């Protein structure tokens, strides 16, 4: 069975990651329209794909999962541990006695219940509101007055999540109104009064990159560059001493480390350092997403037989949000970096092979299943193969913080 699972981050009042809503669909159809869809969702929750990949997808936080009426009555949320999931009751669910009893049983056993896309002034919804631990409200759809009245009525009794928060101004308004959690793409559009300048370490990294791109890089010059920054030297030595580089003997010098890692791997390592160096609390999810994109693009390239191009795919992915991270035009940023023209064209939106793959990943992240399905139908990938590589990319991103 072919299943896609995308995710959207949810933050708390301090912009700390609280969890991910898992957005899923089966095959080419995104509607729950019969027994086959019930089986698809049951399979999604119970099979080894999600059971084995669930922790990777939610990163030790919470997984928000939508459950239609039948699945609540059948108690399907019990297929996943209560401490890791938030059971979202879809807005289309009829608050029948069976549904209320099912929700009461789940709540009794420690499951957290959330009302999804809350509908104001809905008849017969009172019992579900009382049972719910969390209420999700489409921030842009409901009036401010309606939201404030509900927030005031249940303040301290329930958590409130603002959905579809698309800008930092939306986030700040929802924060002031008293919301506890926030979901949307506002995290990818940070508000910064002045553009971020590339600091000392980033300047040094650019100099190292320029040296590495020469036909014959000067090992002595590279050693001097890296030795000038304690943090860089430490990270390089630590990277070179990992099992990944396949040696029984520890590295004790910068020169040794450079020789072991090699120019190609060193270029990737420097790009990772550049993107991680720009990480701040307000853009941490954006940095994480960029790193996952980079690794996923590289894996897709290799699986497509484009092994020699893998590095360019990787660099394009990790730099794909650099304009948002630095709050500068992409064209201005690229003028300072020694990148292949193919990478620059992809980052500027020109329709080359890398850009096609990047656009597919972006559509997947946004759960734009129609656009993503068009890519899959034209590519060599199956849904299962794509999800396998996506989980590998997430796992790789986790490993950078270990």
pLDDT < 50 runs, ≥5 residues: 27-37, 190-200
Dominant shape = elongated
Instruction: Estimate what percentage of residues fall within beta strands.
Output: 5-15%
Task: Count every helix, treating DSSP H or I runs of 4 or more residues as helices.
Answer: 20
Summarize the structure in words.
With 402 residues, this protein is α/β, with parallel strands linked by helices. It is 52% helix and 12% strand. The longest helix has 20 residues.
Key descriptive features of the protein:
single chain; 402 residues; alpha/beta; 8-stranded mixed β-barrel; 20 helices; 8 strands; 12% strand; elongated
Task: Give a short synopsis of this structure.
By secondary structure, the protein is of the alpha/beta class. It has 20 helices and eight strands. Strand 4, helix 4 (97-108) and strand 5 form a beta-alpha-beta unit.
Blueprint (SSEs and pairs):
Blueprint: E1 3-12, E2 17-26, H1 35-46, H2 48-58, E3 62-67, H3 69-73, E4 85-89, H4 97-108, E5 112-115, H5 126-131, E6 134-138, H6 144-154, E7 159-163, H7 168-177, E8 181-183, H8 200-212, H9 219-227, H10 230-240, H11 254-261, H12 263-277, H13 284-303, H14 310-318, H15 322-326, H16 330-334, H17 341-347, H18 353-365, H19 369-378, H20 383-399
Helix pairs in contact: 8-9, 8-12, 9-11, 10-11, 12-14, 13-14, 13-18, 13-20, 14-17, 17-18, 18-19
